């Protein structure tokens, strides 16, 4: 599954980038028109049909430096301009918040739900622009068709590939340190109060519904990716990947 890790990593980092840029635009009192234009241009480039088609083709994972170059071009596809230092800080924050989310997944399948949370954020930002609706829906469709039915063993491999991409990444980020989510060494502190879905969550909430296919499933882990969790407007049942950190 090493050749299928790139879309997952890219979309998660893209969602984090959108969170941060939105926050920075608001903090700098940039006019609403300019802010909307920045977000529109970035998402339009991010979801370009040809780019997305190539993104989902099986391929080797990018290095972190190569991925940074992709995001630098993405940011500068808008009227926004960041110097090298600002871009590096933005990318470091994106990486470390994503690493926090990966570390706190309870099982490999949850990485798809985290990805969908990030995609939900991108979709919400794209709502004012009807021309982006089809592109957004296309990415949802590709995520579901490529990852929904993957065996648990393949998800384990995918998760391991993401861990390798984030390996030895212990950049200290002030917001993570302040929230107690990162140790002084830079390592991520596992969350003690994970508000995320697990197998017991599904069973307990559906135990009175005898007709539910989830109760009959022989693979309850895989059922984390069903029961309306994967619909475009579905409840992911997981908080990881929502804008809970960068907004602080």
From TrEMBL:
<dbReference type="GO" id="GO:0005737">
    <property type="term" value="C:cytoplasm"/>
</dbReference>
<dbReference type="InterPro" id="IPR019332">
    <property type="entry name" value="OSCP1"/>
</dbReference>
<dbReference type="Pfam" id="PF10188">
    <property type="entry name" value="Oscp1"/>
</dbReference>
<protein>
    <recommendedName>
        <fullName>Protein OSCP1</fullName>
    </recommendedName>
</protein>
<dbReference type="GO" id="GO:0005886">
    <property type="term" value="C:plasma membrane"/>
</dbReference>
């Amino acid at each position: 599954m090493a050749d299928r890790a790139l879309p997952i990593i890219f979309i998660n980092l893209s969602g984090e980038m959108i969170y941060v840029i939105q926050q920075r635009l608001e903090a700098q009192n940039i006019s609403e028109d300019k802010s909307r234009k920045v977000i529109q241009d970035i998402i339009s480039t991010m979801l370009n049909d040809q780019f997305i088609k190539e993104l989902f083709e099986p391929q080797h994972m990018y290095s972190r430096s190569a991925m940074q170059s992709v995001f630098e071009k993405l940011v500068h596809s808008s009227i926004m301009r960041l110097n090298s230092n600002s871009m590096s800080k933005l990318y470091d924050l994106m990486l470390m918040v994503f690493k926090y989310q990966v570390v706190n997944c309870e099982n490999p399948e949850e990485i798809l739900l985290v990805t969908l949370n990030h995609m939900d954020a991108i979709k919400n930002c794209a709502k004012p622009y009807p021309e982006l609706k089809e592109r957004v829906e296309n990415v949802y469709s590709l995520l579901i068709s490529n990852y929904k039915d993957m065996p648990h063993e393949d998800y384990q491999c995918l998760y391991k590939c993401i861990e390798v991409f984030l390996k030895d990444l212990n950049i200290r980020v002030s917001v993570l340190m302040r929230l107690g989510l990162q140790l002084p060494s830079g390592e991520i502190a596992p969350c003690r109060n994970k508000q995320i879905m697990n197998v017991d969550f599904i069973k307990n909430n559906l135990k009175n519904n005898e007709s539910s296919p989830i109760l009959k499933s022989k693979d309850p882990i895989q059922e984390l990716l069903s029961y309306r969790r994967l619909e475009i407007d579905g409840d992911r049942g997981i908080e990881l990947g929502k804008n809970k950190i960068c907004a602080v």
